Predict the structure.
Amino acid sequence: MGSRYGVKIRKREREVLKKSRGTYESPIIHKMSVRRLGTAKWICDSTGYVFAGGAYEPETTVGATARKTIETLRSAKNGKQTEEQTQSN
């Protein structure tokens, strides 16, 4: 298959294929063993863990931003709870 005409479209296709065929770090064991199983389906070869992600990468930029925001909110909530506990004692 592949694209036929135009340098720009061939470069874009090359980037997409490179992303989708590459290996990525596992979210569980932090080892480079994640590969693409299908559209938005990823599998860790070491653990057999299958998870949903982006179509061409395991984690999209929007997903990474959302994850960081959630972590920040959780840590702020935990900090507030410990502050309230120390004040009540």
